[in-house]
Amino acid sequence: MLLVLIAMAVDAVVFARVKRGNSLQTRFGWHVVSQFFLSHEVLHGLIVTLELTVIAMAIGIAGGVLLAVMRLAINPIVRWVAWSYIWFFRGTPVLVQLLFWFNLSYVFPQISLGIPFGPSWINLNANSLITPFIAAFVGLGLNEAAYMSEIVRAGILSVDEGQTEAASALGMNRILLMRRVVLPQAMRVIIPPTGNETISMLKTSSLASVITVTELLYSVQLIYASTYQIVPMLLVASLWYLIVTSVLSVGQFYIERYFGRGSSHAQPLTPFQKFRKSIVTVHQAMPLPGPRDAGSPLAGRKER
Question: Which of 43, 68, 261, 300 is buried most, with the most CB atoms less than 10 Å from its CB?
Answer without folding.
Answer: 68
